[in-house]
Amino acid sequence: MAGREQHGMVQKRGVGHWFTHLGLIIGVLIIFFPIWLAFVASTVTQPEIVHPPMPLWPGDQFFNNYRDALVSGVNAPVAKMLLNSFVMAMGIALGKILISLLSAFAIVYFRFPGRKVFFWLIFLTLMLPVEVRIVPTYEVVAGFGMLNSYSGLIFPLIASATATFLFRQFFMTVPDELAEAARVDGARPMRFFWDILLPMSRTNIAALFVILFIYGWNQYLWPLLITTDPSMNTIVMGIKQMFPSGDDIADWPVIMATSILAMLPPIIVVISMQKLFIRGLVDSEK
């Protein structure tokens, strides 16, 4: 009797297992279908897109459209805009992580007057996004002569209260015995940071890097404000500029090819760091 009940539970569990996977597959297909249409549109001719129905399978213009996308652009070549976005995203991600690591390390392991006050001041900056402080930030950047430069694109966005908070929470879970052992061995604070804390934070750093890279890659308002030189445009700005104004006709195959190219770097980063990213999120929850 017990065996039958157990067998029935296994069967029910198996049905739920298949329904769960079926729901996941349907969800993935729904999310992926617009991306597939964008890819198909980047491989066909303009008349095939303009005159419905649009084909659902790739055409024979793949190399022509992507070549045109890389060398063309409204104000700058797409290849140059991809480079600008990559430098900006990498600078923002690495800068945020480095500053947050050092800030959290100082707050947790150093005793100085107003330590908690400084932490909560950092935490309160979460309520002040770039859009709120964009005018004074622009004045500061312009005053330092950083308009139309990578430093102007990166430096105003590298402070991160969220990353500081997450690293602080992680450092507080590190046993005090490690710091005591390092102190007994004669290790200075920075040696303890580089040799012990940094390797232990590897998965958390990977998870934050993926999130912050995509955050920097998708920036639109700040680059739009401080770049007047077309050679400093980012790829998100470039896609927006490709859309026609007035009675102009959009070159949809080239626009779709540019959109696919713009998605590739974030996808590569996510796929290449997938294991560390998932492990970092799980460790952060603990």
What does this 3D model show about the protein?
The longest helix is centred in the N-terminal third of the chain and has 40 residues, at 2-41. Helix 1 packs across helix 14 (252-272), helix 5 (115-124) crosses helix 8 and helix 11 crosses helix 15. 73% of the residues lie in helices and 0% in strands. It is mainly alpha-helical and 286 residues long. It has 2 domains: 2-63; 67-285, MetI-like fold (Orthogonal Bundle).
Radius of gyration: 25 Å
Classify the helix fraction into a percent range.
Answer: over 70%
Largest sheet features: none
Unreliable stretches: 5-11
Our measurement of the CA-to-CA distance between the termini, rounded to an integer number of angstroms, reads 41 Å
Number of helices: 15
CATH superfamily of the largest domain: MetI-like
CATH architectural category of the largest domain: Orthogonal Bundle
Output the CATH topology of the largest domain: MetI-like fold
Structural class by helix and strand composition: mainly alpha
Give helix and strand order, one letter per element, not per position: HHHHHHHHHHHHHHH
Q: What's the β-strand tally?
A: 0
Query: How many structural domains in the coordinates?
Result: 2
What would the average pLDDT be, to the nearest integer?
82
What portion of residues belong to β-strands?
under 5%
Give the overall shape: globular
Query: So what's the CATH class of the largest domain?
Result: Mainly Alpha
Layout of secondary structure:
Elements: H1 2-41, H2 46-50, H3 62-71, H4 78-109, H5 115-124, H6 134-143, H7 150-154, H8 161-172, H9 176-184, H10 189-200, H11 202-217, H12 221-226, H13 235-242, H14 252-272, H15 274-285
